[in-house]
Amino acid sequence: MKRMRKSFDGSVKAKVALEAMKGEKTLSQIASEYKIHVNQIRQWKQRVLEELPGLFSRKREKSQAEAEERTAELYRQIGQLKVELDWVKKKSDPFG
Description:
With 96 residues, the protein is an all-alpha fold. It has helices spanning 10-22, 27-34, 38-55, 58-92.
């Protein structure tokens, strides 16, 4: 019989990681309370510690703005290519 993996939403992950960071309970206590493996809690805690400094930096805002610009440019190119394709189809139709 196959076991289905549990998936947890972000709020649960954040809650568990924050509780682990507080240090009021041991990881084993938290794991048994939420029925999550200790190693998974360690991973979530480590990820929070790694990403927390970037939360307040301007670099994150800059990368988001660059991503939006890139997306807008790609949509512009898609539109241009669609117009060109329609033009080629129209020109190549001998009965049109």
